[in-house]
Write a structure and sequence with these properties.
- The chain has 256 residues and is of the alpha+beta class.
- The chain folds into 4 domains: 51 residues; 73 residues; 82 residues, no CATH class; 35 residues, no CATH class.
- 55% of the residues lie in helices and 12% in strands.
- The chain is flat and about 115 Å long.
């Protein structure tokens, strides 16, 4: 490989023209000549140069490293990771400590209640959410969508009248010689391009027609109310997420 070809590779790796000149014991003017006559590489950006030299550590990797350096025992550290995986204190204790279920049923929740263990679990969960790009308000927005879902957003329905006819197609008359009329109802899904499907849990065609099952609206509203009561001031919730807890509480009082 010729010297100017090696120098081009150095340039790709983020070397400056002055650095290259010093490395190959030539003038900066010579390096500029190589660049204009032989190189096809564009100037490496500052970000690219930094990226070459800096290893990006994911939040969860950093959190796990901090867990390794914590004061927990090795078994407790393993319990933390296992609990984060399956969210079951009893089974996590069985998997880590190799004990029977009767023992783990008592000692698993007890270890889960340990303050230092809880702190590590919370820190790792926070790191995972950060890595996923999800925060509490992202989850709250989903709950708001579920809490405010209206079945009318997903189906069209109505009714119409039909004349009652016999087998020959003649209109039947009632006792006063008026045409007999009976009422029928109709229901159909709205076009999928016209709806937001997030609140829908299931959708199918049943034996009697379309069936739309939404996520539990009352449960979503209850979770929202609990969160708002703990974390957000009275004047903030309407502006932040478009959900008025005072109105929701009033509605609950009326129905209870």
């Amino acid at each position: 490989m010729k010297k100017y070809e090696e120098a081009e590779q150095d340039y790709k790796d983020g070397f400056s023209l002055a650095d290259i000149a010093q490395k190959y014991d030539v003038s900066v003017g010579t390096v500029r000549s190589w660049k204009s006559r032989h190189w096809t590489t564009n100037v490496a950006t500052k970000t690219q140069r930094v990226a070459k030299n800096v290893a990006v550590t994911k939040p969860t990797e950093k959190a796990i490293d901090e867990l390794s350096d914590s004061e927990l025992t090795d078994k407790q550290k393993a319990f933390v990771l296992e609990y984060l995986r399956i969210s079951n204190a009893t089974q996590s204790y069985i998997n880590v400590y190799d004990v029977d279920r009767k023992t783990a049923f008592v000692t698993g929740p007890r270890l889960l209640g340990n303050v230092r263990v809880q702190n590590e679990i919370k820190r790792l969960r926070k790191a995972k959410l950060q890595e996923l790009g999800v925060d509490a308000f992202d989850l709250m927005e989903d709950m708001v969508i579920e809490a405010r879902a209206d079945i009318g957003d997903f189906i069209d329905f109505g009714k119409y009248d039909m004349l009652n006819v016999d087998f020959d197609g003649d209109v039947k008359l009632d006792t006063e010689d008026n045409p007999e009329v009976f009422h029928k109802s109709w229901l159909q899904f709205k076009d999928k391009d016209k709806i937001d499907t997030k609140p829908i849990k299931a959708m199918r065609i049943g034996k009697d027609g379309p069936v739309v099952e939404l996520h539990d609206r009352n449960k979503a509203r209850q979770l929202l109310l609990e969160y708002l009561n703990k974390n957000i001031g009275d004047s903030d919730d309407v502006q932040i997420i478009g959900f008025d807890r005072r109105k929701a509480n009033a509605e609950r009082s009326e129905t209870s």
